[in-house]
Amino acid sequence: MIRFITTMAILVFMAGFNSYSQGLSVELGVEWQRQDIRFDVPPLLPNKSATTPFLKVTYRNLTEDKLYFRRIVALKTGYPSIGHGSFIKTEMDLPDQVKRHLDFSGSSYNVDLSSLNDYWDVYNELADRSQSYTKDAINGGLSKIYEVLRAQKLLDSLAPDLQLSCFSDPNKKTIQYMEAWNSYLYEISGAQMDFAFLEKDLTETDIKNAFQSKFVFLKPGEEHTDEIDLIAFYILGGDFTFRVIDDQLRGYFVGVDAELLEFPSLVDGYKLYKGTFLTSSAGIKIKHE
């Protein structure tokens, strides 16, 4: 049995507004949605439906200008990327590792999101962030679950007759994760565009094509909402507070050799938004019983 409580999102006003004062808001919220489950990982039941949480990130343009800016949450094949430490070497297939996950119910974590980092940082709320620390074990658990879900989503499009062992379609052949990676997923993963590999400023053409999914474009008064599946958090359990830790949106990104590279000031008539913004946090509690 799972008991869950969603807390109220609280609007936080960032200090030091510039000429675009309160020109943008980035609001977090959690919504529970019913979805069909194919994932054979406890506490989920395969081929059943379950009500699971989704993080909603809503961007609102509060100005009279057309704006564009880098997304706070960048998704990789539809799922968040979780930063993690080194994994223990094992011969066990990754889906089998996921099935034997730990339960983190009763522990409390902060989940930090930032436009400067595509990876979510999940850490115990008691951790001393002023000191060096080892990433909590929950990071590895979350990362493995999302990697399996991401891999199966790619298999569904590249080899629809195949599935990993923690999925339960009787009409599909089961394949091990490393076999799927070597045969189907490696080239796709390598082709995904990432700012960290760039050596020059982005052009207007770059943003409109290869990198468009990393940006939001809003007309005056317009809003846009991204939904992020929190099913891995649901599976592992725990108390989570999702927070935007940026104090402002910046007009640059970190490229190769930690070089600061710039976004164009104008893309198709949309101005680059740089500066402070309104934001909020959202909390969720998941307890397995």
Could you walk me through the main structural features you see in this protein, from its secondary elements to its overall organization?
This protein is α/β, with parallel strands linked by helices and 289 residues long. Helix content is 19%, strand content 35%. It contains five helices and 18 strands. The protein has helices at residues 94-99, 137-158, 177-191, 204-208, 231-236, and strands spanning 2-6, 10-13, 24-37, 48-61, 67-70, 81-82, 108-114, 117-124, 162-163, 173-174, 215-218, 223-229, 238-244, 252-254, 260-262, 266-267, 270-272, 278-288. Strands 1, 2, 3, 4, 6, 7, 8, 12, 13 and 18 form a ten-stranded mixed sheet that branches. A four-stranded mixed sheet has the order 11-5-17-16. A two-stranded parallel ribbon has the order 9-10. α2 (137-158) crosses α3 (177-191). The N and C termini lie close together (5 Å). Residues 3-20 have low confidence and may be disordered.
